[in-house]
Amino acid sequence: MVIDEDTLYAWGAIAKKYQKNDILFYEGDAANYYYQIISGEVRMYHCNEDGKEFNQGFFTDGCSFGEPPLFIDENYPSNAMAQTETIILKLSKNKFLNLLEEYPSLKTKFLKLLSNRIFNKAASSKQIINQNPESRIKNYFENYKRQHQLDQKEKILFPYTRQQIADFTGLRVETVIRAIKKMEKAKILDILHHKIYI
Amino acid sequence: MVIDEDTLYAWGAIAKKYQKNDILFYEGDAANYYYQIISGEVRMYHCNEDGKEFNQGFFTDGCSFGEPPLFIDENYPSNAMAQTETIILKLSKNKFLNLLEEYPSLKTKFLKLLSNRIFNKAASSKQIINQNPESRIKNYFENYKRQHQLDQKEKILFPYTRQQIADFTGLRVETVIRAIKKMEKAKILDILHHKIYI
DNA sequence: CGGTTCCTTGAGGATGATCAACGAGGGTGG
DNA sequence: CCACCCTCGTTGATCATCCTCAAGGAACCG
Q: For an engineered disulfide with A197, which of A7, A84, A190, B79 has Cβ 3.0 to 4.6 Å away?
């Protein structure tokens, strides 16, 4: 958990429930709130003109998201959508910034959080040079495991769909499917009942 | 300038001169210093197996770089190379973190700096979905202008080579050349004596 | 069961990468 | 001033491969 929930309530945060597929904010919207998830899942993503999507990230219980625009005067760079029924604590921008001034240790916490975010984005943007689908997907899986502090050796069930992999790697579903089949043959991953183990 | 140079010297920073093409650190190295450029230019970049490069960013006078690994315990995610003769202030990690504790306003400064960095990375990683070279390059030029706080309408001389554009967009030089020629015809940019005006 | 979402396969076409060769410009030293 | 070199820019031809479109199958859920 980023900020203690009781503290957030004490400073005036309001809990709000979103249904699956509700939009929390659109790309270009002004940033007025700090968001922290109590339960559920949120996806940040872009759309291009043809409706193709690119996922910036998924956030779940205890995570905050969309903070950078609160610190600089920019609008949101991506859309945010509830992936499941989701309950979120919202604290207004001003109150959030005041809270940070009150507790300097929170600033350090956010320095770490943003640093991690940058580190992960650097790792994932590397894949731009590999047009080769298998490298891209392999790189994506490695980042996924690192971000979730999992051992690279240990096999785990990968919880997202092929379409979502496509939306993270900039590939097409069919390409992802063909690539992971190759990767299964090459023993890079396992597929059991259509489920992916990495 | 991120941190006042006199302050850095007072806290024990050392100025060091690097020649063109000197490596400051490699991907995977432990992060032991805060780096701030006095004069010159530094490039952060990745290499893949075939030697193809991807640029994460260029940094110039007054800029700091490679901070995120100082806040979290990670190694450098990219290589850093001096693009020209460059003079850099180096402050050891511990002294840097102590300096930040001493001056809380610096923490806020870095929160903003990191937020900007994330914002820009989000904007540039969008282009992964556009396999189309012209869209990628257009997106890259727009980001370049925004990051340098330039009006999108105003034409400026773009200071990098076609190879560097390729290394930022994940394309090949020849593809970049053909794309910008098309873009010139489409009046998206001007080319004068081989120089690009955007 | 019926519907929805996700997964899978094949065929064909578009296009960026690759390879090879050359041109243009700028700087350096004789 | 000229010759040389080195980097950068340019062009064409060919190839590999990812995208696209279309169709159908599998799993899951009420």
A: A190
Residue A64, C-beta contacts closer than 8 angstroms, at least 6 positions apart: A2, A3, A34, A35, A36, A37, A113
DSSP classification of residue B40: S
Query: How many CA atoms lie within 13 Å of A121's alpha carbon, on the beta-carbon side?
Result: 25
CA A85 – CA A145 distance, rounded (Å): 25
- Residue B29 contacts residue B76 (beta carbons within 8 Å): yes
Nearest to residue B138, comparing CAs of B149, B148, B123?
B123
CA–CA–CA angle B24, B28, B29 (5° rounding) = 45
Determine the Cα angle at B36 with ends B31 and B39, to 5°: 135
What pairing do the DSSP bridges indicate for beta strands A86-92 and A79-82? unpaired
Strand D: which residues 52-91 of B lie within 7 A (CB)?
Answer: none
pTM over 0.85: yes
Which residues of B are less than 8 Å from A135 in CB distance? 48
pLDDT tens, position by position, A99-150:
999 999 999 999 999 999 999 999 999 888 888 999 999 999 999 999 888 9
pLDDT of residue B134 exceeding 90: yes
Q: Do B114 and A118 touch (CB under 8 A)?
A: yes
